[in-house]
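Annex B. Sample input.
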Amino acid sequence: MSTTTINPLRIGSIELEHPFVQAALSGYSDWSMRALAREYGASYTVAEVMIDRFASEVKVSGKTAHHFRVEDSDHPVGAQLMGSDPEKFIVAAKRLVDSGFDVIDINFGCPVKSAIGGCRGGYHLGEPESAIKIIQSVRDTVPGEIPVTVKMRRGIDDTSESRDNFFQILEQAYSCGVAAVTVHGRTVEQKYIGPSNWDFLREVKEFAGENTVLGSGDLFSAEDCVNMLQQTGVDGVTIARGAIGNPWVFQQARNLLFENQSPNPPSIHEQRTALERHLELALLHHKESAIGAIRKFGFKYARLHPQTVALRKAFSKLRSIQDWERLLAENYAHDGPGIFPVVDEIQRP
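Annex B, continued. Sample output.
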């Protein structure tokens, strides 16, 4: 793979160091994961999605304050909103800007049943007028220097009507002043079944021209990230499930793209260092619930350890700091090479 010259990724007025971004991840991309991703090389991160009603009504203090947390070292950072009511979107977007988020990202891609049933997320891909109204309302409301972006899947399904709706929303989004659109190569109906359609991403970028397009779907390694850029022509990639328990992927992808440097898996001690830092951040963010938060990440970190199965069992039993210290002592005391597992999280029909 040869070294590549690539234009800087821009999201409105924000110029990013490289095109490898941490996506919004429900249940995962809390402040601790975002902070760690930035420390390990992510050029930009997006917080886990918030429902418009929640973000517009809850207190930005007390037990819900962590949802709005932004530190000086986090910038640039985006907030993602999902909902059905343009008025709620407006209030929520204002609060998120006031909290310090640099970008407001509108989610029209979530495929889960509760979102679709609540006329949220991917539901809007079948309702272009509703989608465009939400986009215009948010763009008209937040300050001009705050970029508004949109996350989409390639449609509700594979019908021609769905395709037409997608391109109508895409074109109108840019006309409304959207700074970038992220496109996942699966339909809403697919959820995570079958591969992401990268050919569609190439088509979207050709349609969008000079407008910024980010690609999403099936990015589990540095090679995947660089391949998507080179095969589709998108301006950047948003790494979602492939970044959970793998903060090294951002710098690895950067080194591969710009320096033709093939990545090595992190050593056992490098993994331990990342885990210790992740828990440190989780304790700052979650306090008494930090162990529960780190446990779910641990299952993903375990994929890079030579004793993956045994380590997953150990993480499943993690309940206290004492368990944590024992887990590290038994599994990470001695250094050695890590592994790049074969990761296949595509669901089969």
